[in-house]
């Protein structure tokens, strides 16, 4: 039983870690990283390391993705503040840091300061 | 160094590391086995000092000096982030407009905030008995506060989070660890040795100095993460880069002072 859980958790870690590497859009990457943190927390629980699992859960799946998302927001906001339009004038195509996916729904600087 | 040279150097170094790792792994105890030479000794030493959570004993008793280093790394990292992300000359601070939060999310946040805070404090307080401790619980406490940002808005979080207090708490937690170490020396023992009475096994007051050091780390981590996230939030939400100034005379050659 434990072996099955362990194999499942290892598989989940491998899949989410690969997805985090292959994903090139920073915000989406942060979300996948959060899932990777969750999978690692599960794995550590199954190998009877609850202390490490708790750290992983708190830091890996909450604080680190949040810091990445905040950084991306700052970078995009600054890029959107050109000499012409102000920061509230809506999405600026030049501020797009992702390669092809573009700016997803609520990323615009005019969203009123929420992420 | 050329690209080819770098690749050759990397491959050579990687081969050496791989060989050493393989040699080390062969000599390791088997995965999931019942016996582990280090584990058995660590658990025996933990029980000798009446510490139910052997991990806490390793962190704050047997390897307390290592943890001082780890705590200082976090302290230095927060300090570095604070210096790098400070508001520089010319940057403007504009508070974000208050936003409307859906009532369901507001209710959930209000409900979860005290629960999460309590769980975090519980994890810190029971570090010597159950899994967790100052580091894990501290991060939970810090994230709990940020439910205010989810449930209300950034203004609410800023009003209920006096940042200077957390900056003091961060430094005080770091100092408390070092001061405890000096106190153990003054008590006539080694630096960070477990000199306090060990108490009754499995109770909140057991494990001697582990309780003190655990609390110090809990305070440092909780305050440090709050300060760290505050600098990131400030940069992401409030601080704007300076407006590019045009025609302010800097382009004119030999613009006279006066």
Automatic annotation (TrEMBL), chain B:
Keywords: Cell membrane, Membrane, Transmembrane, Transmembrane helix
Compartments reported by the entry: Cell membrane
Membrane topology label: Multi-pass membrane protein
One Pfam family recorded for the sequence: MnhB
Main subcellular localisation: membrane
GO CC terms, sorted: plasma membrane
Top-level taxon of origin: Bacteria
TM annotation in the entry: 72-89, 110-129, 175-198, 210-233
Residue stretches making up the Na+/H+ antiporter MnhB subunit-related protein domain: 109-226
Residues making up the signal peptide according to the UniProt record: none
Coiled coil: none
Family indicated by similarity: Belongs to the CPA3 antiporters (TC 2.A.63) subunit B family.
Protein name (record): Sodium:proton antiporter
């Amino acid at each position: 039983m434990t072996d099955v859980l362990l194999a499942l958790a290892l598989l989940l870690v491998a899949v989410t870690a690969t997805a985090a590497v292959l994903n090139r859009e920073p915000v989406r990457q942060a979300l996948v990283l959060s899932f990777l943190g969750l999978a690692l927390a599960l794995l550590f629980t199954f190998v009877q390391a609850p202390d490490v699992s708790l750290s992983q859960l708190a830091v890996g799946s909450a604080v680190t993705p949040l810091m990445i998302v905040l950084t991306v927001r700052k970078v995009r906001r600054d890029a959107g503040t050109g000499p012409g339009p102000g920061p509230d004038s809506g999405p600026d195509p030049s501020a797009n840091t992702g390669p092809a996916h573009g700016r997803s729904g609520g990323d615009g600087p005019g969203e009123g300061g929420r992420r | 160094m050329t690209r080819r040279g770098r690749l050759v150097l990397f491959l050579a170094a990687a081969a050496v590391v791989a060989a050493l790792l393989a040699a080390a792994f062969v000599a390791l105890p088997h995965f999931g086995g019942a016996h582990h030479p280090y584990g058995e000794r660590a658990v025996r030493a933990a029980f000798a000092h009446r510490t139910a959570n052997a991990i806490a004993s390793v962190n704050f008793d047997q390897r307390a000096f290592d943890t001082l280093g780890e705590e200082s790394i976090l302290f230095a990292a927060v300090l570095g982030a604070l210096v790098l992300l400070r508001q520089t000359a010319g940057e403007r601070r504009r508070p974000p407009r208050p936003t409307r939060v859906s009532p369901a999310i507001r209710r959930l946040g209000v409900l979860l905030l005290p629960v999460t805070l309590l769980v975090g404090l519980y994890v810190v307080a029971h570090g010597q008995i159950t899994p967790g401790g100052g580091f894990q619980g501290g991060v939970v406490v810090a994230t709990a506060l940020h439910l205010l940002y989810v449930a209300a808005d950034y203004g609410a979080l800023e009003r209920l989070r006096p940042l200077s207090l957390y900056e003091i708490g961060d430094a005080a937690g770091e100092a408390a660890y070092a001061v405890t170490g000096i106190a153990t020396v003054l008590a006539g023992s080694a630096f960070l040795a477990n000199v306090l009475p060990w108490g009754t096994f499995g109770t909140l007051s057991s494990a001697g100095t582990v309780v003190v050091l655990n609390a110090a780390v809990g305070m440092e981590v909780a305050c440090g993460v709050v300060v760290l996230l505050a600098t990131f939030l400030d940069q992401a939400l409030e601080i704007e880069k300076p407006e590019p100034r045009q025609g302010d005379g800097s382009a004119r050659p030999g613009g006279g002072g006066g």
